[in-house]
Amino acid sequence: MTIQFHCPKCGSLIAFTDKHAGQSVKCLTCGQQQIIPDKSGQTPQKIEPKVEPEFPLPGFFHAVFVDSWKIFFDKDNLAALAFVTTVVCFRFFSENACCMAFIIYFAAWGYLFGFYLQIINETAAGNDKLPEVEVGTSITFLWYMVKPILTFAFTVFIVQLPFIIALAFFKNKGLTWENIWETRTALNLVLRSLFAAGLFLFPMAILVAAVLEDLPELLRFDHLLVPVIRAFIPYLVVFGLLAAACFIETNTRQYESLSMLNTAGNLAVNMAVQVVAIIAMRSIGLFYRHYDCYFSKSW
Questions:
Q1: Of 48, 85, 136, 248, most Cβ neighbours within 10 A?
Q2: What is the arithmetic mean of pLDDT over 121-140?
Q3: pLDDT tens digits, residue range 71-124?
Q4: Do 136 and 283 fall within a single domain?
Q5: Which residues contact residue 262 at a Cβ distance below 8 angstroms, ignoring those fewer than 6 apart?
Q6: Which domain CATH number covers 12?
Q7: How many other C-beta atoms can be found within 10 angstroms of the C-beta atom of residue 143?
Q8: Are 206 and 267 part of one and the same domain?
Q9: One domain for residues 36 and 102
Q10: Calpha distance 17→3 (Å, rounded)
Q11: In this structure, are 185 and 41 located in the same domain?
Q12: Average pLDDT for residues 7-34, to the nearest whole number?
């Protein structure tokens, strides 16, 4: 059933399905934040702009390393955890599905990336529950897979743009992606440093893409750097968790026709990746929540 209501600020007609009742939404006409009512015709509750904090919110490390574990034992998160488990198992056992393997791999990571973006967004907004999983309808399910992958790909491209430009500029000197890692010339070290800097800024960039949903803002590297510099140690923790998830993922194996013990071990490692990844995505959202004062001064 569809819930229709008018924006309390500009009067624009807004419509959502009833499953979104109680969630916050932004009016596309005037930008007013409001709570979706339970029934059509009701006046939505306005959400007043929050007062920007002057100082960081304490407890970041406790929230990351202690509170994050609670979500895996919260019964309200069972549906989301079951979804992640199903996607991982489906991808794991479909490794040898011939031509379907790539499609399954693409679909699995599309939904997982979308889930990660929702975790960052919900955590940054103060919600300590895992987000509800939306797989879409027969029309929108494909977009739910493609959009997150495009978002991650575009974010990686932006943070690596200085490296890409430098590599293209020095191409006439014989530098390629392969040989910049082979020798230790000054130019090679500069290119490696640019590449490493792009990777280091990725958690900050994906935070902007997930929370602010302002992709052009990713081009403002000065804005990205301000919170990183002012909360450097917490950001190192965020980067370390995301790097750990990526490292474990690149060393995982999918289903192989070996012993049951090897199969169980490989599947366990794949599940461990998701545990670390969920905590890493929460840490990105928590970074925004706890150090919002630094963002408000740069945006």
A1: 248
A2: 81
A3: 999 999 999 999 999 988 888 888 766 666 677 788 888 889 999 999 999 999
A4: yes
A5: 256
A6: 2.20.28
A7: 13
A8: yes
A9: no
A10: 6
A11: no
A12: 81
